[in-house]
Amino acid sequence: MSVLLDHLPELWQGLVVTLQLTAASFLGAAVLGVIVTALRVSPVRVLRAIGTAYVETFQNLPLLVLLVLAFFGLPEIGVKAEPLTTAIVVVSVYEAAYVGEALRSGVNSVSKGQGEAARAIGLTFTQSLRHVILPQALRTVVQPLGNIAIALIMNTALAGAVSIVELTTAAKNVNLVEAQPIPIFVGAGIAYALLAALVGLVTGRLERRLVILR
After folding, report:
1. How confident is residue 117, by pLDDT bands cut at 50, 70 and 90?
2. What is the DSSP-derived secondary structure letter of residue 174?
3. Taking Cα atoms as reference points, which of 157, 56, 66, 67 lies closest to residue 98?
4. Mind listing the pLDDT tens digit for each residue in 119-152?
5. Which of 32, 105, 138, 148 could form a disulfide with 96 if both were Cys (CB 3.0 to 4.6 A apart)?
6. pTM of the predicted model, to two decimals?
């Protein structure tokens, strides 16, 4: 226990980076996920194909491979950014495939009559999606989005492979000095578990508040 207290500043800084990476990446994934969903449910076949290709591509590639490719490959073509910024962009693009699929399942849960009614009053596809379908779809996928956020928290540990000192890397660095892996990594594991529990608690309450009775 004392080893955790002795190195609390380093571990705390790692936790802060984990939180920054999680929050920024989830926000980016949410924005991109809405776009992916719009492509996936578009009446235009080409757009649906683009959306499908995006999802199939990023759901079938390891996040670690994408991080390494972006970190080492982008500077080679003249695209340079801070490591944390690169990690946020890569994780956002990767997680958007999962957010898009979760939202699409929510869109599919909205009755076709809702879309037909929207079109009957003159709304375009984009307006129907924005004002009628997506608000209802979001209310049905709060828990799946929470599960994606929890998975994202765990995935941030992979950013350590590209020089980001997040919580796991901070714990590893402390262990290199102290050689006490059990208390150090148990402490880091408890921190991840608490974050996951907090996300689960918040999404559980949101789901109960926003539930649609059919």
Report:
1. confident
2. H
3. 56
4. 777 788 888 888 888 888 888 899 999 999 999 9
5. 32
6. 0.89
Band of the pLDDT at 211, cuts 50, 70, 90? low
Give the Cα separation of 128 and 121 in Å (integer). 10
Distance CA 71, CA 53 (A): 23
Residues in the chain: 214
> What pLDDT, on a 0 to 100 scale, did the predictor assign at position 213?
53
Q: How far apart are CA 133 and CA 131, in angstroms?
A: 6
Encoding tokens for residue 79?
A: 């695209």
Tell me the fold of 19-164. MetI-like fold (1.10.3720)
Q: Between helices 83-109 and 63-73, what is the axis angle to 10°?
A: 140
Question: Could you tell me the two tokens for 52?
Answer: 């499908």
pLDDT digits over 81-91, tens only?
899 999 999 99
48, 39 contact by CB (below 8 A): yes
Instruction: Report residue 184 as tokens.
Output: 């150090």
Residues 6+ apart with CB under 8 A from 23: none
Two structure tokens written together for 186:
């148990």
Answer with the residue of higher pLDDT: 80 or 213: 80
Tokens of 172: 């590893």
Distance CA 18, CA 170 (A): 10
Q: What is the mean pLDDT of the chain?
A: 91
CB 147 within 8 A of CB 204: no
Contact predicate 5/68, CB 8 Å: no
